[in-house]
Structures are given as C-alpha cells and as structure tokens.
Design brief:
The protein is α/β, with parallel strands linked by helices. It is built from seven helices and 15 strands.
Length: about 290
C-alpha cells in the first residue's frame, strides 16, 4: 500500500500561490488543496482560469476528486473551492477553527446575519483527525499563528503546510493578521519540523527569492537545516523578536479586505443584488495605516 501520494503544484503568479492536486497512485482518488479563483482588483473581474486548468489536469489524469481542501481563509486570493465543488460534486473541507475567523470578520464587516458556524463547508476537520485519500492515510494538524484557523494536511509522506514555512531561502510566514501570533506560529512550526526528516514539505506561497524560478517542495530535514529563520532563531524568544520586526515592515496584502469576505464564506462570492451585480464590502480604517 503506497504512502507516497503523487503531488502536482500549480503556481499562480498574481498572488504567488501554489495550488495542489494530491492523488493516490493506486486508486486515482485526489484532493485539490488551496485552489485560486482569479480576481483582478483593478477591474473587479473574476474568472476561473486557474481552477479550469486544474480540472483539465484532473480529467487528463483520470482522477476522481474526493476532497477540495483549504488550509485556512486566505488573505491574498479568493478560494475557488465553491466553484470546484459545483463542477465536481466533491465536498469542501477546512479546519474547525475557521469559526473563530468567521466570528472575527463578521464583526469587521458588520454582518449581523452571517452564519459564523462553519456550515458553509461540508466538513470541519478537528486537530488530529484522520481520514484517507484513496489508500493513503491522512492526518490534520492544527497549525495556527499565521491565522487562527490554519491547518496542515499530512497526506502520506507529504505535508501541506500553507503559510507557516516558505522555501528555506524565504523563511517563515507573517503572523500579524487579525488573530495571528508569532508565539503561536513558532510552536506550530516546531510541530511540523518534528515530523520525520524525509517528510516532503509543500508550501502555500513562493515569491521567487532573488529572482529564481518558483519552487514549493523541500523536506523537513532541509527546512530544519537551512531555513533562514528556523536555522538562525533557535529559541521562541529570538524568533518572535525577529518575526514581529519583519512583520512591522510589511504592507498588508492588497486583497485582504476583498478576500476575507469571500474566503470566510467557503469561496462563495457575494449574492447578486437587485440589479444582478455582485458587490464587495470594504471596511475603511480597519487595518494598520501605511502612514503610521
């Protein structure tokens, strides 16, 4: 029985995101992880180019989509989970702590009628919950710090670590979003780095450090030995000081206020209004000012 899934990454350049198709080679059952719905903030246009590229790949491989999974409510792109569910019929899943993120952003967006109970997803995964992808055992690890709800999917020998670790030359993810914590992120990363050395690590973003080509696969051993943050900051205190200093220098993602109202609703776009058009709601003066 194989414990090594076939993993194919799809790089989305606009947001630097990596989307994954993870398949059991024996059964052809697959999961789609962190799919992107195309959105152009200048024109307000949406499209399904990235999601359709994944669907075509699944079709040509003869895979059957068993799950559509998000690791957390993303702040820099819209999730295509709802669109892919409509095309495949596969259930959508996310970590159960998403309800905490929903409650936070329900208040930010002043949505008194929004259901902040996670019911927009078909399944909410608990920390430590086990399931199978075809013949491959899977386990869910709660990995907060970047967000309250972040999870890692350990599928056979592969760990999909979302925005905790980047490629070793790029360090770790920020922890200054509402509900984030550098202290908590440190402990989440320690749990990931406690996995077997040969575990394949698949990251959620890559920003092509130094102009190199996009990359998204490493191992636990490589991360532990060469990650520019985790090999340098060896205590929680050192890491937190460095992470928080770095975060203070970063602008907010340009789509955070656009994306969270979609992604806390499982990738559903706002309902059309009386004129048939959909509208996003942007709260003013909510996040840190670039002039501060």
């Amino acid at each position: 029985m194989s414990k090594a899934p076939d993993v194919t990454g799809f790089y989305e350049a606009r947001s630097g995101s990596i989307q994954y198709v993870v398949a059991c080679p024996e059964t052809g059952q697959c999961a789609i992880i962190d799919p992107v719905l195309d959105f152009d903030e200048k024109s307000g246009a949406t499209a399904t180019v990235e999601a359709d590229r994944i669907l075509e790949f699944v079709r040509t491989r003869g895979y059957h989509v068993q799950w559509i999974l998000d690791t957390h409510p993303h702040a820099d792109h819209f999730s295509a989970a709802d669109y892919l569910k409509s095309r495949t019929g596969a259930p959508v899943g996310i970590g159960e702590k998403v309800v905490e993120v929903q409650k936070l952003w329900k208040d930010f967006y002043n949505w008194p009628d929004f259901r902040a109970d996670g019911s927009q997803w078909d399944h909410l995964f608990a920390d430590g919950e086990e399931f199978r992808l075809g013949n491959i055992p899977c386990r869910v690890m709660l990995s907060p710090g970047h967000t309250l709800a972040s999870v890692t999917y350990v599928i056979g020998d592969a760990a999909f670590v979302h925005d905790t670790l980047f490629m070793p030359d790029s360090g770790t993810a920020r922890a200054d979003f509402p509900g984030g914590s550098a202290h908590v992120l440190w402990h989440s990363i320690q749990a990931i780095l406690a996995l077997p050395d040969t575990t394949r690590i698949f990251t959620g973003h890559d920003y092509c450090q130094g102009g190199r080509e996009p990359a998204w696969e490493s191992t636990v051993a490589e991360q532990r030995a060469t990650n520019i943050h985790m090999s340098k900051y060896l205590t929680e205190g050192e890491f937190v000081v460095a992470r928080e200093a770095r975060d203070r220098s970063l602008p907010m993602p340009k789509l955070i206020l656009h994306a969270l109202q979609v992604n806390t609703n499982a990738g559903r776009l706002p309902e059309p209004e009386a004129n048939g058009r959909r509208y996003l709601k942007i709260p003013l003066d909510l996040l840190q000012s670039p002039w501060a």
